[in-house]
Amino acid sequence: MYSEINAANSFDPSSFNAADKRNTGYFRMENTIPTIAEIGRTHCKILNTYATQQKQKRTSQKVHCYSRWGTGANDYETTIISNPF
What pLDDT score was predicted for residue 19? Predict the structure, then answer.
């Protein structure tokens, strides 16, 4: 079965290594901005907000994505998707 999550980084197709459990392709489920060494990569993570510290009554759910496109400190895009589900 083909999965785009396991595809190569579009800026550096040689970066893909199927044996690497950490996925060296273009997408990772992380809540950090990709480093300058990771140009072309996107990191996305689901963030939940709860009404209490005991994580009861989820009040919101958002997906935060960061996509690196250049070598500058601010050369990335941030996308926040509210209530994606």
Answer: 59
The span from the CA of 4 to the CA of 74, in Å, is: 26
Residue 41 identity: R
CA distance 71 to 53: 38
**Predicted TM-score of the model (pTM):** 0.66
Q: pLDDT averaged over the chain?
A: 76
pLDDT tens digits, 7-31: 555 555 555 555 554 555 677 788 8
Q: Where are the domains of the chain?
A: 4-82
Sign of CA dihedral 37, 38, 39, 44: negative
Distance CA 41, CA 18 (A): 16
CB 59 within 8 A of CB 82: no
Give residues with Cβ within 8 angstroms of 3, minimum separation 6: none
